[in-house]
Structures are given as structure tokens and as C-alpha cells.
Design goal:
By secondary structure, the protein is mainly α. The protein has five helices and no strands. About 25% of the residues are buried.
């Protein structure tokens, strides 16, 4: 059995937010499993994107990714994945984009948690960790009324 990842306290709030991203992936899968219209699922995914994920990406890109050199392979991968996800959230092909968001966001979060954040917390200075902690927004609150996934 895998041991839980020991996350530095400054990274814990942003790491906890990854749970909501994984939950979005689950909700998309549930929506498809329950034959919910893709447009209805897309309304929620758009709301999630604009009310949570955009700000989450911004914090990561500005304060977490900057701990490592911009040409570090992990940072290059993380930025590329963010860009790909942004494109998918803005796509007009709703069924395909939802399917790809579900798959790629899940993989991206697991990459950040298992690989990138571990490296960041190994090399970050106390000042960098403090900056991350100071610039994290208020916790995400999922108050969407149309619970299509139930």
C-alpha cells in the first residue's frame, strides 16, 4: 500500500484543492454514466473552471512553478498541461472536450501531487514557501445547485 505524501504546510491548502479537481473528473464520469446531457455537464464544468480552476492555475504558475527554473522539464510539462486544459475548457466540441478534461485533469493532478510538488517542496526556500502560503486564495466552495451526478 502506498504511503501518504507528506506535504509541506505551505502547500497543503493548494494540494487539498486538487481533491475538488479529481471530484470534477468523477462528476463528469458520473454524468456520462447516468446519460446526462453533455450541455448540462458542461455548464458545471464551465462554472468550475471560472470559479475555481483558473485561479488555482494562476497561483500554481505564479508562486509554485517559479520555485524551479522555467526550463525544468517538470515545469515545461506542467505549463503545457495547463495550456492544454485551458484549451479543452474553451472547446466547442462539448462531448469530446468533457471526456478529455476528465482524463487529462485527473492525470495532471496526479502528476503535480506525486512528482512536481514533491520536487518543489524539496528545493523551495522558506521565503518561497511563505509566499505560496500568503498568496493562496480563500478555500473553494462547491455550491452548484444542479447535482446531475447524483
Amino acid at each position: 500500500m502506498n504511503q501518504p505524501i507528506k506535504r509541506h504546510p505551505s502547500l497543503q491548502p493548494i494540494s487539498r484543492e486538487h481533491h475538488f479537481g479529481l471530484l470534477l473528473c468523477w462528476k463528469i464520469r458520473q454524468g456520462f454514466r447516468l446519460n446526462i446531457s453533455p450541455e448540462r455537464i458542461k455548464k458545471y464544468s464551465d462554472w468550475f473552471w471560472y470559479n475555481h480552476l483558473m485561479a488555482h492555475f494562476e497561483i500554481e504558475e505564479k508562486y509554485i512553478f517559479s520555485v524551479l527554473p522555467s526550463d525544468d522539464a517538470l515545469i515545461v510539462q506542467a505549463f503545457a498541461e495547463h495550456q492544454r486544459l485551458k484549451t479543452l475548457f474553451e472547446s466547442e466540441d462539448i462531448p469530446l472536450s468533457l471526456e478529455l478534461i476528465e482524463q487529462e485533469l485527473d492525470q495532471h493532478i496526479r502528476f503535480e501531487e506525486r512528482v512536481l510538488f514533491n520536487k518543489v517542496q524539496q528545493v523551495a526556500t522558506p521565503e518561497q514557501l511563505q509566499l505560496i502560503e500568503e498568496n493562496h486564495n480563500t478555500p473553494f466552495e462547491d455550491n452548484w445547485e444542479d447535482e446531475f451526478w447524483k
